[in-house]
Amino acid sequence: MKRSILLVFAHPDDESFGLAGTILKYTRQDIPVDLICATKGERGLRLDVPADVDTGTARESELRCAAAILNIRDIYFLGYIDADLDKAPVNEVTNKVLGIMQKVQPAVVITFGPDGVSRHPDHIAIGKAATAAYEKLTSSQPAKLYYVTLPASLVPNADELGIVTRPDDEVTTTIDITGFLELKIRAVECHRSQQDARQFVQMLRQNKAAIFAGKEFLYLANPTAHDKETDLFQ
After folding, report:
1. Structural domains for the chain
2. What strands lie across the sheet with 144-148, from one edge to the other?
């Protein structure tokens, strides 16, 4: 199977926070990366968004800005409304994701796990749908399914931040993103209407030597990992 990656997330900015460096690492190798975005983040913040521009339009523009920096090939919007994704029929969302998977035929699928990293209902819903679609897809062709994750040692105050981590020894995949930090910051900066994006950029700029600035982390959900990985295609 040709090497390619499909990201399946809920909102504009999900792609940049935890994966911008990984995306750059592979698009710079001419490996195609496509993105499914279930919503346009319509209920997010709208800092500095002109009054005559609706939030969804602004956030779609921000996502396209980030995608251009990250060299994402195509963006597929599913048309759901921010904060309502968990109310949509699971089979409906699954079938929409499956149709795109069948078109793109990815070797690697990356989404949210059951914890959604932040327990956000939209994150959990799209991860559930992507996992179900992957399971249908792999009945006819092989692929790897990853969940975005964070090792527990990296976020010792995870509970107060509302973040769900994973024990370090359960983190299967660590991607070295050395050399891509500035571009990652630029991608996150595209999501300028969101306060957490602004805060994350500030944290990255102030802690360029920190582990989280040079590595990104994933959990190989399927097939079962037997060894630690440093490459999605090993």
Report:
1. 5-222 (3.40.50.10320)
2. 75-80, 33-39, 5-9, 108-111, 144-148, 215-222, 173-176
